[in-house]
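SWIM-type domain-containing protein: structure, please.
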Amino acid sequence: MKENKEKVLVFYVKGSGKKPYRVAFWKEENSRDIHSGCGCPAGKRMQYCKHRFQLIEGDLTNLDDSTENAKEKLEILYNWLEDSDIGDFFEEFIMAKTGEKIQNLANKVNFIYSKDILERVEYKHAVKKKLYTFDPIELSLKKFLKFLENGYLIIESKNHYNVFDVNDEFYYGSFKGDFDLSKNANRLKLNAYTCSEHLIEAFNYFNMINISEINQKMKEIMK
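Here you go.
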C-alpha cells in the first residue's frame, strides 16, 4: 500500500528566547487535516502558542530573516487552511485580522504625531513589547501617488502622508504637503485612507464583528 507523502512548511519566528522558535505546519498529501508545532515552551507542551497564531493571522512582524522562501510557504499554508474544514471561517478570520491591523496601525501613527515626534518616529509594538524606531523617508508626490494607486495604506497626520504595508507594518516613506486625500482615496477612519477594495472590505468587516470572539474561536481550533 502506497503511503501518502507528508508536506512540511518550516518558519522561524522571533519570541522571548535568544534564538527564533522553529514553527512547523504539515499535512499528508491527500488529507485536509493540518498539524502544527512550535519550539517555544507552550508549543512543546502542546498548548496554544502565539507564534503559530501570528503566522496564521498574517502578522509577519516577528518572522525571522532565516526563514527561507517565506512568501511561497505562507501562500501554501493559506491554501491549506482555505481547503481545510475551517476554510469558511479562515476567510472571515483573515478579513477581520486585516481590519484590526489597519485600526492598530492608524492608532499608533496618530499617537506618534500627537507627541510631535517628527524628527525620529517611535512607537511601541504591542506584540513585541519593545520600542521600535524608523527615520521618516521623504517621498516625492509622484512616488506617493504610485503607492496610493497600488492600494497601500496611507495614514495622514499633520500634513504627513505616511505609506505602510498592512501585513508587516513596513513603512515606505511620507509625502509632506497640502494634498486632499478624500478626492483620491476612500477614508477608512479619521486618518487612514486607501484605494484597495480588499482593505476597505476588511476594515468594514472588522467594525461589524467582535474581534475577541473571532480570536478565541481560532485559538480553540488551534489547540
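Notes: The two ends are 32 Å apart (CA to CA).
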